[in-house]
Amino acid sequence: MAVINDVAYSFSMIKLTSAALGITDDSSILQGVSAIKWSKSREVKNNYGLGGNVVSRGFGNKVCTGSITMDYNTQQLLKKLGKGSLMDLGEFDLVLSFANAFAGSDWTAETVTLKGCILTEEGIDAKNDDTDITKEFNLNPKKIVTDGESSDSDSSL
Fold this sequence. Notes:
Strand order of the largest sheet: 3-6-7-9
CATH class: Mainly Beta
Strand content: 35-45%
Largest sheet: 4 strands, antiparallel
Number of strands: 9
Oligomer: single chain
Distance between the termini: 24 Å
């Protein structure tokens, strides 16, 4: 767990920006985001030989996934950016960084960039007693670049 001046990273420290959508640090458009997920994976398969033993491994495709959960108001604000539809926003990079008001002078913010995101659905999930109507959307990123990785390198995913 990352701790800075005895303060652990938390959801309240996450900042989301997107130059393509015109969303900066001081933008209120994404205030209704209540969850963000991303992951990178790669298929690894064992290759077997005589005696049923593993003799080598084969590597498959690299897969990036991500999702964002946002309230209905945030969806409406984004729809205005996309000509009335989340599906018309086009491709965008979403930059996730951490802001820490307690950080010392030696602290550097971590960033993760979800490159080439595109929203492919719209909708609503609402039920009786909901006090906040939220929905999770797949971001469908092409690549995910974390601190220290080159965004142009094939090995960076």
